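## retry 2 of 3
previous attempt timed out at serialization; input unchanged, resubmitting
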Amino acid sequence: MTDKATANERVYSAIRWEILAGDRHPGEPLKTAELCKRFESSVGVVRESLLRLAEHGLVQVRPMQGFRVPELTADDLRDLTEARLDIEPLALRYSVTQGGAEWESHLVGAHHLLTVTPKQDNSGKRYSPEWGKAHGAFHTALIAGCRNRRILGIAQRLRDTAELYRRWSTGPQEDTTDGHRGLLDAALARDADLAVDLLAARIRATHDVLSQHL
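## retry succeeded, writing output
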């Protein structure tokens, strides 16, 4: 990897995590000059990272206004949920039928990390950034066995945006441990129909909770 590619990845990952961790508020401007200074990087690297994040739905680009963290709206959440219900179950079906032993091992490890990570932040009102990261990693691992890179890429971009909504939800922090265990068991048993049904039910339930507590 070249020095430029390494710098791009470093800045991209740092900004992405700040957004998903809730360090950047919905609608907050992302000023190029401030980010260049913060990450000791060039304008080109920062802009490239922001444009890449925009492709993943984690940054909005507005003409004459620059970059900002996306606004969270009920209409967008509805559209996001509909897209997820079309794409993620398909990616999961492929993953369950195509994933090998390495995929299984990674999935089990991601589930274990999720179960041992504290769920709430210090306020007790929102998910902790650490749990959010572990939660995203589990769902990424769940579909990682899918060999269709285009389907997998779209599914992951939708999941990134869903994690942003989840981070800013002030609703009840429901216990989802059993639900994740059910997904894990169905995937490892290679029961694609059950895994897909469980995932679709979770996506719908998540929409219902988040839509009430934006």
